[in-house]
Amino acid sequence: MKKKYLMAPGPTPVSPEVLLEMAQPIIHHRSPQFSEILAEVREGLKYLFQTKNEVLTLVATGTGGMEGSVSNLLAKGDKGLVVRGGKFGERWAQIISAYGLTPVNIDVEWGYGPDPGVIRDHLKKDSAIKAVYVQAHETSTGVKFPIQEIGAVVKEFSGVALVVDAISALGVYDIKTDDWGLDVVVSGSQKAMGLPPGLAFVSLSELALEMMARSDLPKFYFDFKKERKNLLENKGAYTSAVSLVFGLRKVLRDIKAEGLEVMFARHALLAKAARAAATALGLAMFPKDSPSETLTVFLAPEGMDAGKIVKILRDKHGVTVAGGQDALKGKIFRISHMGYVDRFDLITALSALEMTLMELGYKFEVGAGVKAAEEVFIGGAQ
């Protein structure tokens, strides 16, 4: 027998309690009972997003929320300013281009975060830029971006929206949607929320609503005006993912019971333990700036293919982690510690990593990584 451990940055593990909640008999998505559930979910999402505004629930992955945040905000002739510091920053530019618009790209070396002052310089120079598209956390590199500072910069320019991909960040660390002036925040069910893939969430500020009124880009399924109109009546624009919403209600109740600050501290402790293990094993981490609490990105030892580490962890030890993408393929591996992951899940993953590295001939003190992580946990508050 071999147990399986999901330690990749999405999908993430789903708790047995949430799975049982989703196993309830299906009810109709236009029934009064389902409207009551949606009403509760609306308030729970506002708590998680730290916003007074409505948060749409779309039947899609996070990329659907990203696409809708382009097609519903921009109009023909507009430009979108994009921070490209990794694989998912590049996705913003691809979506904007797909709608026949011009992305203005700020290219940031992978492993680093953007300079908010560069964003200010671009906005000063080009009045056709109507929205800034950026990641809260670049999952491909493990770097956390300075969203609060970027929000302060964008506020200086009237009528320019700040759109944040927080798909792998929301629920991991503090993101104050309203206080930081984040006009659109996108997230997804399969990350820190610990649900299966299939739901995207999009918060909309008053400025976002104004931009939606002038947008003339084509849209049908991802029509935010239609979604919001129906949401205010506690129903979806189309067929809702009923079972996923059952699970969502349970997740949001659990988040409220735990409290945001406790949830953030839990993720921070896991990240601290993973980094301590990396140091003890003599492994370098990839991020040069602000490593995120979402996951730890390890550089493979010199001369070793990170893909082999990922394969042995998965096939021999039952621990699924993620490798690198594009230029980082074969160079890094990524261990997630977000959502329904506790200290013993991480200890298991680190133990499996040590056995994998031994098998591949890497020299280190056996047990050093696990010991370092345990010492963090013993000294931590969680």
Task: Give a written overview of the molecule.
With 382 residues, this protein is of the alpha/beta class. 42% of the residues lie in helices and 16% in strands. The protein folds into two domains: 16-258, Type I PLP-dependent aspartate aminotransferase-like (Major domain) (Aspartate Aminotransferase, domain 2, 3-Layer(aba) Sandwich); 259-379, Aspartate Aminotransferase, domain 1, CATH 3.90.1150. The chain is built from 13 helices and 14 strands. The strands form four sheets. The protein has a seven-stranded mixed beta sheet with strand order 2-10-9-8-5-3-4, with helices on both faces.
Number of extended strands: 14
Q: Which percent band covers the strand fraction?
A: 15-25%
Task: Catalogue the unreliable spans.
Answer: none
> How many helices in DSSP terms?
13
Silhouette: globular
Distance between the termini: 31 Å
The CATH superfamily of the largest domain is known as Type I PLP-dependent aspartate aminotransferase-like (Major domain)
Describe the oligomeric state of these chains in a short phrase.
single chain
Descriptive terms for the model:
382 residues, alpha/beta, Aspartate Aminotransferase, domain 2, 2 domains, 7-stranded mixed β-sheet, 13 helices, 42% helix
